Amino acid sequence: MNLLASRPSLHMDGQDGLLFEGVPLQTIANQVGTPCWVTGAGTLRRRTRNLRKAFTERGLDVALHYALKANDHLATLSVLRQEGCGADVVSGGELKRACQAGIAPSAIVFSGVGKTDSELTLALREGVGQINVESAEELRRLSRLARELGLNAPVALRVNPHIDAETHDKISTGRLGDKFGIDWADAIALYREASTLPGINIRGLATHIGSQILSPAPFKAAYARIAELVIDLRAQGLTVSVVDCGGGLGVRYRDELAPPPAALAGAIAETLGGLDLKLAIEPGRWIAAPAGVLLTSVIDLKAQRDGVSDFVIVDAAMNDLARPSLYGAWHGIVPLAPDLAYAETGPQTVVGPVCESSDVFAKDRLLPAVRPGDTLALLDTGAYGAVMSSTYNSRPLAAQVMIENGQWKLVRPRQRVEALWADDSVPEWLDSE
Q1: Is 355 a catalytic residue?
Q2: Residue pLDDT, tens place only, 239-249
Q3: Residue 344 annotated as binding?
C-alpha cells in the first residue's frame, strides 16, 4: 500500500474497499461498468491551488494556462476555469473546446508547431490572448492573415533554448533537432523582423523544453537563457513584456523524486523574476495526472510455465490507455477489494485483450492473487489517458465519471458500438450485387 501512502486522494477502507476522494470506486464500477475513467474534481482543485500558492509565496503573479492536451473533458475544463485557469491549446478543435467550457478567448494561448491558416484565422477572429509562433514561416503567414482580416495578432516567439530536459526522448521538446520552436541563433533577428511586420503585435517570448521533468536544473538552465535573450532584445531597443515559461513539471508515477511546485517557482523567480515581465506557465500533467484513475475488470487468468509470471487479462487495453505501450510508462495498479489490500503478492503480467503484443500494462508486477471479476484501478491516469484513447479493434470509448464532495456523476456514457460505424458509407457499386 505504499502507492496509496503518497496519494492523498486515495484510501483503502476495510469495508468499502478503495475510495477516491471518499467515493467507493467499486460502486462506480458496479453501476457504470468497466473500463471506466474516474476524474476527481477535488484533486484538480487542490493541485491547482497548491501550484498557484508556490508562486505567490515567491512574490510572483504567474498566469496559469492549463494544457488541454493532458485532459480535455469539458467537466475538467470547467473545474479549472472555476479555479482561475486559462488554457493552452494546440489545435482549432482545442480552441473551440476551451471556449465551449467557458474559458475566455483572452485567457487562451495558442501553441503548436503546425497551425494551419484556418486555425490561425480562427484564433484571430476569436481574439485569443496570445499566439506562440514557432517559425519564421508561421510568423509571415500570420502577418498576412492578420492584415487580410484587419486585425493585430498578439505574438510571442517560442524559442528553442537547446536544453536537454533529461526526460523521455519522445517527450523532450527543447533540444537542438527537436521540431519545436525557433532556433536559438535565429531568435533575435526574427524578433526584430516581427516588430516590423504589419498585423503583428510582438509581446515577448515563450519556451517549453519537455514533459515529465524531474529536476529543477533543466528549467533553471532554460529560463536563464531566456532571461539573457530578454536583456539582449531590450538592449537593441525592442520591447519584451511577456515570457511564457511552458510546462513540464513531473509527477510521481512509481518511486520518482518529483520536484514540488516550489522548485519550478524558484527556478522562474531566480532567473526571470526581476525583469518586470508578465509571466505564465502551461501546466497539464502536474494538475491532471493524479486526478484520474482507470477502472478495469479481470476477464481471465492465464497460467504460464517455467517460472514465467502468469497473465492477468483485463478488459481495459492499449486503445484506452496508450502510455504503457507508447512510452513504456509505469502506472500503479491497486485492486479495489479490501480483502486483497494486504494479501500476499506475486509477480503477474497484466495485459489487455487487444490483438497486439504491446498491449501490456505491467510486466512481472507484484500483485495479490486476483480473481476473474475483480476490479483493478490503474493510478495516475488523469493526464494523457482518456484524451489519447482510440477505438482500435472496434472497441468503444470507455465511460467517464467525475467525483466531488462524496458524489459522482457520469459525464460521458460508454460509446455505443453502433456509433463506431455510424458515419461509414459504402460506395454504391459495392451495393449493386
Answers
A1: yes
A2: 999 999 999 99
A3: no
